[in-house]
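Hi C.,

You asked whether I'd gotten around to modeling the 284-residue construct. I have! Everything is below, sequence then structure, no commentary in between.
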Amino acid sequence: MSKLYIYTRKDGYINDVKQNYDLIPKLFHNELIYKLRESPTDEDGLRLLNEILTDIKQQFREAHPNQELNKLNIYKFLLFKYESEILNKVKFSYINEDNKKYIINLMNMMIENHLLINSSDESEINHFITHLLRAHKNMEYGLYFSFKLADNDDDFYAKALTKETPNRDLIYFTEFIDIIQFVLKWKKIFKLDYTFSMNVLYANQGWQYGAISDDSIILNELDVNDFISKIFQNLNLLEVELICQLPLPYNLFRYMYIRNYIPFRNKYLKYKKKYLELKNNLKK
């Protein structure tokens, strides 16, 4: 029986350097940083990016001279320092003061339980800030996933080796039930049903940039079985966006880098040697 997987694609290589990502929702749209995603070798753009990163880190050091410059502290700083610029805050107001405190608490607990890595390495700090500032200006706050049906992980690997988006050659994936169980666990810990106004996990038909409508299927309003059933019954799985508004631990997902795409078309045995080579890149 087929399983329902969720996955997201990232830019696996920038200037031939392997990238990795924290599964933390982006917070802000910076036009320059967003455009650099499409032209990562632009020298003027890289110079300006370096100036932006240097300025943010300097502001942090001046505001918090006794705090270590690490990913969690810079996240707190950006979340509260630039709160007026958070994605679609005026339009949707999904992120209020109470929600920000819960997000910070969640990230603290995830770091304490080694589910997120709180690095103080300068290059990782730069990469992290760039990630937070690289959101699409019209997208709602959250992590975005697509669905794919597969019999097992091997079947998913084969189906994932088709070119969907240029340069998006890093794939994070897991079974859908895994992310539901994680969200329900943290909803219970924080009593999110009563104190958290975010719609922490929901699905839309088509690309809606995360905007919630009457047709959105929202976990808050349903039990797990109804949530999954409604997605199967009411949505075309090939054209669904799933949005999670909580940060997610890296060990919830498997991931793989794909440098050379192969058009499998359900005949991947023909490419067995290359397939096994790519499969060995999978990190669990």
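If it helps when you're writing up: Confidence is low (pLDDT under 50) at residues 260-276.

Thanks,
B.
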